[in-house]
Amino acid sequence: MEYKRFKTKQIKVGEVLIGGDAPISVQSMLFSKTRDVEACLEQINRLYFAGADIVRLACLDMADARALREIKSKSALPLIVDIHFNHKLAVFCAEFIDGVRINPGNIGSKENIKEVVKACKQRKIPIRIGINHGSIEKQFSDKFGYGIEAMLESAKYNIKLLEDFDFEDIKISMKTSDTQKTIEAYERLRPLCDYPFHLGVTEAGTQFHSTIKSSIALGNLLLKGIGDTMRVSMTGELEEEIRVAKAILQDSGVQKSGVNIISCPTCGRIQSDLLKAIKIVEEKTKHIKEALNISVMGCVVNALGEAKGADVAIAFGKNQGLVIRHGEVVAKLKEEELVDRFLLEVEDEVKSREMKH
């Protein structure tokens, strides 16, 4: 089945385009206190080098808001402010920030939202309508509970509200902590509007659980052409959020970038230290941004077949092995020489592609 992405309106967060034909961007959120400027900048730099496109920060009070102004002036990435309960903080931050995320369920009255919209409209910055199943407005939760129906009604209401204020620089999220409900919420809203969607599973848990939940929900939606920007939410992680998000994009086939490592699960046929080799290859290739398929196999049973579909491959045997590039054997070497030669071929493949660009 051919992948076909749902066509959405395009908005801009800093210099990052979201929606339309723009690449699907990857986001994260800082867990340091926003008033701690140095800690925030340190985390932003970590995310920058990990490959994040956008960063979100919480703003609890005016101390955070003032610190955020300084952080924005020094940030290597576009910043979105995350506001709950106090719309005045959103109005203040709209003067210098790249985007605002509000939760309609707790931001207050229609007049409060109107003030936020006015401030964002003046600076031409987008608003994310963040619908969370746990914080639906009372008018919808009383009637529909806290399920998908309430989320849909809240989303439709708030989209119309912003449109009535003549504002369309909108993106939308429909997050729950349940994978099936998250998928259904996004699927059901998608035909009803053409604003870009921010994908995520909220409160997804630790690295292990979040990786699984996010892979199921976000991968499912991406394969159906749904999603324009995304965050893999993990408790207490930064770089790992970006790593998993990019892997979901890569392994779903939706957006190719970086190295895709194919390796066997190991079995009794292996006569080499495959685990050691894989660790070295992962570490030495993590900087590569070029979309590249590489194969590291422990024996010849599947290695030659996998090598045909890989850009560069290594096939271990007993005390020796082959290095293969585009299906052709380029070297037969002793086991201790294989990984170094393999990595040289990988780097040469990257350089040759860069020259073609």
TrEMBL record:
Required co-factors: [4Fe-4S] cluster
Entry cofactor note text? Answer: Binds 1 [4Fe-4S] cluster.
Against InterPro entries, the record matches this protein to: Dihydropteroate_synth-like_sf, IspG_bac, IspG_bac-typ, IspG_C, IspG_TIM, NO2/SO3_Rdtase_4Fe4S_sf
Q: Which family does it belong to?
A: Belongs to the IspG family.
Summarizing the function annotation, the protein's role is: Converts 2C-methyl-D-erythritol 2,4-cyclodiphosphate (ME-2,4cPP) into 1-hydroxy-2-methyl-2-(E)-butenyl 4-diphosphate.
List, in alphabetical order, the Gene Ontology terms for molecular function in this entry.
4 iron, 4 sulfur cluster binding; 4-hydroxy-3-methylbut-2-en-1-yl diphosphate synthase activity (ferredoxin); 4-hydroxy-3-methylbut-2-enyl-diphosphate synthase activity (flavodoxin); iron ion binding
> What metabolic or biological pathway is this protein involved in?
Isoprenoid biosynthesis; isopentenyl diphosphate biosynthesis via DXP pathway; isopentenyl diphosphate from 1-deoxy-D-xylulose 5-phosphate: step 5/6
Annotated residues for binding of [4Fe-4S] cluster: C264, C267, C299, E306
User: What general EC class does the enzyme of this chain belong to?
Assistant: oxidoreductase
Q: IspG TIM-barrel domain location, by residue?
A: 8-246
Protein's UniProt name: 4-hydroxy-3-methylbut-2-en-1-yl diphosphate synthase (flavodoxin)
